Amino acid sequence: MRSIKQLLIVCLISACFFSCKTDPSLETSEVKNSTYKQFVNAMKLEGIATGNILVYEDGEVIFKSSNGLRSMNPIDSLDLDSQFRLASVSKQFTGMAIMKLKEAGKLDYDQKVNTILTDFPYDSITVRQLLHHTSGLTDYERLIYENFEKADSTKQYILGNDEILEVFYRVDPELDFQPGEKWEYSNTGYLVLASIVEKVSGQHFRTFLKEQITDPIGMNNTSLYNYQIDPDPNMPNRVFGYRLALNQKETLPNDYNIVNDVRGDGGIYSTLDDLYKWNMALANHTIIAKDFLDEAWVSGQTNDGEYTGYGFGWFLEYNPGEPIVIEHSGGWVGFATFLRNEIDAKSGFVILTNNSAEHFGSIYSNIEAISAGEAYQIPKKNLYKAMAKIIYERNVKDALSFYQDVKTDTINYRVNENDINQLGYLLINEGKLDDATQIFKLNIKEHPKSANVYDSYGDALLMQGDSIKALENFKKCYAMDESLDYAKDKAEALEKALSN
To answer: Looking at the domain that runs over 85-371, which CATH code has it been given?
Structure first.
């Protein structure tokens, strides 16, 4: 028989065992947290900025990191409170604004747009079609590029919805397709939605978002920014977009665009923590009734009944009966962003970057992989960038020699036709026409069965004044692939010019 002392020891050991035993879910979160850290640090060692990242599971944040530059003038680093331009991730907030008006009984999704915006020149487009990207509206960026007249050629204009719609109404462009005929991603549609919100509510879109959406759920560092080019003392944590120069040394600004004040399709700035609050407010149905969200997360359809996989500002990743996953990416000037929200699991992640999508695809795929319990992979070196660096530091001959030395090293380098082609055009943009011509010739040697390489070489030859050889290459391109109409058009235009 055991003594009382022995029994007490057994009980104490048993109690300690059960009370100290680790929750398996916590163990998994800790492992993932460590893996995320390892990934970010490994990317740092490769000189790759991963921007700001947040991952959450079961409603709890398990990882946050900040790695990169917030601004270039002055040089300043990102931190966890940095406010990034969301680009098209903003569209879900526009969708919510429309839902709020529907909730208040102030509009219907199937209402015709021109019953709200009386100058809108199309009779058959509905609010729902704008939300679902099935309206057929043409791209406003192209329209502005072709039709906006600068009164002062020295001024950097910053256009918003009113200026763009003024041009739109004046030009009255034809629809790209009849409403509902097909799905085509439309920034113009979401610009119009923001203007609808302003007309119906009587408030600026910025004010409506603040009062109806961001303030109620405590998104205190989120706003539709009234864009200005220079640093703004009223927004000290604002992030600026930038890009790495072709010489692989300088960082150059990539933040300004003439349509930077457009609202509805983009323009919102936010932080990791605020976007986590947003995702949780959606998952918990605290921002609007569940019935409205259920409708927002049903796929749109074209007139022939085909599902589009897009709701009211979200891409949808689910099948009927399966857990709902909503997500959206964004890309504008130097910013590349992504927001994933697994509604039923209350899990997801946020990725915010500002270095012109440099390695964004790798960052996204690795966060997704680690989230699924898989190993991460450091991206391969980009061969064309290594070649560009050599061209600037030495010459194109050495860059071509370097290519031959490492082109078979596909373990460490990414080697493909498109990258080399891109290098050629980037060199043209930098005024290095002779070097670009050598790069295009290399691509022909490496990919003689590709039609496009001859078109690119033809472009360089034409710029050098060798019209005859340029014409030969345009014709060869089209003969190899008759779907490449751009080569045919160039050949015909050049033949006409030569015959005059």
So the answer is: 3.40.710.10
